[in-house]
Amino acid sequence: MKHKIIFYIILTFGFMISSADLQPIRKNTDLKQVISILQILSGYSADNFSPDNQFEKSDLKQVIYLLKVNAGLIQNNEILLVGQNQPYESLSNAISHASDGDIIEIVDTNLTESGITINKSLTIKGMGAENTVVQAHSDPDVATDRVFTILADASVKITGITIRHGKSNKGGGIYNSARLTLENVSVVHNSTIDGINGRVGQDGTNGVNNGDSGEDGDSGEDGSDAGLGAGIYNEGSLIIINSTIGNNRTGSGGHGGYGGDGGYGIKGSSEIESGGDGGNGGDGGNGGKGGDGSGIYNSGSLEIFKSSIVSNSCGNGGNGATGGHAGNAAIGYGSEGSGGYGGDGGNAGNGGDGGQGSIFNSGKMTVRFCIIENNQGAIGGNAIGSGGDAGNGAKGKDSSGGAGDGGYAGTGGAGGCSGIFNSGVMVVNDTDFKNNQGGNAGFGSGDGGNGGEGADAGGSWNDNGEDGGNGGNGANGGNGGAAAISNFGSISITNCSIEMNVSGNGGKGIGNAGNGGTAGKGYGSDGSGGYGGKPGTGGFGGNGAPVILNENYFTAINCTVYNNSAGNGADAIGIGGNGGNGGDGSSGSAGDGENGGSGGNAGHGASIISNSGKIKLVSCQIMNNYGGSGGNSSGSGGNGGDGDEGKESSGFPGNGGQSGAGGNGGSIIFNTSHLVLENCSVNENYGGSGGNADGNGGNGGKGGDAGGSWNNFGEDGRFGGHAGNAGNGGASSFSNSGTLTITVNSLISENLAGSGGIGSGNGGIGGIGGEGYGSEGVGGNGGKGGSGSNGGNGGDELDNTGKLLIDDCTFSQNQVGHGGKGLGKGGEGGKGGEGRDFNGFDGFNGNNGSDGDSGRYVNP
């Protein structure tokens, strides 16, 4: 009787029964009523029903199940098997046949597939990350595509597999723009593409016909940036649970292209009297940036739970290229012809910055119970290109053309942060940062271009010589990369440990400066010589990086910062350029020589924590950390230019340039803005030592000789350049120029400040006095010698030049640093010039260097 009723109901609602199964031919919303009737008749309860149950009462329960599927009460998810001897041999094939909600299981096999695209909601299961591998290629260096692409509107879960050997511009392992969950997954040995080298600039063509100017050289193209997110690139919503993101690497930036040389001008003629100008040199291209986010690049929403971010590395920055040399100008023709202007040398390109962060976040991110360990920061690109030399000006009887300026050398790229780089919003709880290495900066080895020579006066309506062109600066080193955290957004860390991380060092400043150009000579009785060109400055060493860098909002609660090392400042070797010599005044006034350029200063050592934003530390322990040492400077100053002879007046010479200073050592916490400590302990830390200074000051220029007529007095020689001072030691605790508040039972104890550096550079020799003229001639006095280097001061207990608020805290058993020795010798005074009537006096010797002072204690 029951079965007759069942058949009647089924036939009424459009079902037909075959001997094999039941197949629905239409759906009806009243199926729910049918199901209820069938369950009552069969005595079966829906509470314990599932499609996995055995149909022990023959077809009756199967009928109920099929009716529930048709009514939408049960989702009939299919399980698709992938592997050898399985229905699907490739994951892509299984995905194409799957429907939303289906499950794909990879059985007893590893898959080599790339470009797997998922645009539907699926679950993909492996047999454990150690047993199931999905790789783009067997060789990671050969791969040309990523492994997975998750498209928008999909919701995907991947469990129990290893994803490796993918390579792409964005996301070598995974690119996600949808909703993705990774659980028990390893994303390892993936990469992004390198940047492309910039095109070389073409040389400018030379002038062809008389009076033609040379064309400018083309600038070299910049190297392109490398790809982002070697392991994962996420711009959707991503959750990572119990997974490993490791041994992934972003690409390196492309190198800049060389700038083209400028063409030279053609001399004037009877038809076109003016000479052509020299073309400018093209700028060298900048190096491209290394790829950010070696493990994960996130611009969306990201949650990481109980996972490891380990042994990832970002790509290096590309090198900057050389600027093109300028073309020389050509002379004018005839009495009304003007000389052409020399072109400017092209500037060299900068090195590209190294990639930032094993995790790069510009979105919203939460990290809980994770390990961020053994990640390597990228090296900044080197500024190896030199600035182009300038073109010389050309003379003309109507007017002479000016000299061009030498091109500037570039700056080395910054090293990359190895831990977390944040420009978004981030919360980090219960996470360890350990053994991460910040990237070293790129060095600057390119020289500045030399200034062009000023043209001589050509006569007729042109009596005065032109000024020499200016020399370009030598290349500077870049700044190092932070080891643990670089924050430019908002970040809060709680219950975290930051241990044994080492930040990147600054890049060396090796580039020498370009010399100032020699000035042109005057013409005739009223002609005056031009002024010598200004020289460039020798390259500076870059600064070391802190372990934690904050430039916005940062809060740390109950965290430990232990046994970390900040980056050292880099050495400066670059020599200052020589000042240009003044032009001969002929029958008029002589031109002045220019001061010598300064040698490069060394970079400063970094602090463990550097703050230029707002930072609050609550119940934190900062212990046994090491501030970075200042770099050494051996960059000597350039010599001052000589004044030339003039019948109306003699030229003034230039002073010798000062040699570079040693870098200062880093303190433990460096603050230029707002910093608050509550219930914190800062103990057993070590400030960095100041760098040494052993470059010599440049020699003073020689005074111009008297030329007779209205000028019998030789000009005095100029001062020798001072030797730069050694760097100061870093403070034992804080270096504050902002607002610092220390309160609520904080303890500052047993910290040791750094010692000052040694000053051993000698002062430059004073310039020789110019010779007097004739029987009444008086020689110029010699210039005074420059002072020798002073030793650096020892680091203070607390170095404060800002606002300091201290309440309910203790300073105890801290030690200040010793002052460094001042061993520099003062330069000899210049010899007085000869004169028939009276010789000039010899100049005074410079002062010897002094020892630095010991650091100062504070008594809050």
Describe the structure.
With 860 residues, the protein is mainly β. Among the domains are: 69 residues, no CATH class; 90 residues, no CATH class. The protein has 4 helices and 46 strands. The chain has a 15-stranded parallel beta sheet with strand order 3-4-7-10-14-18-21-24-27-30-33-36-39-42-45, covered by helices on one side. A 14-stranded parallel beta sheet has the order 5-8-11-15-19-22-25-28-31-34-37-40-43-46, with no helix packed on it. A 13-stranded parallel beta sheet has the order 6-9-13-17-20-23-26-29-32-35-38-41-44. Strand 1 and strand 2 form a beta hairpin. Helix 1 packs antiparallel against helix 2 and helix 2 packs antiparallel against helix 3. This is Polymorphic outer membrane protein.
Overall morphology = flat
Distance between the termini: 98 Å
> Residue share in helices?
under 10%
Helix and strand composition category: mainly beta
Q: Tell me the β content.
A: 15-25%
Please give the oligomerization state of what you see. Answer: single chain
Number of helices: 4
Cross-sheet strand order for the largest sheet: 3-4-7-10-14-18-21-24-27-30-33-36-39-42-45
Radius of gyration: 37 Å
Unreliable runs: 1-29, 44-59
Q: Give the tally of β-strands.
A: 46
How would a textbook summarize the main sheet?
A: 15 strands, parallel
- Mean of all residue-level pLDDT scores: 90
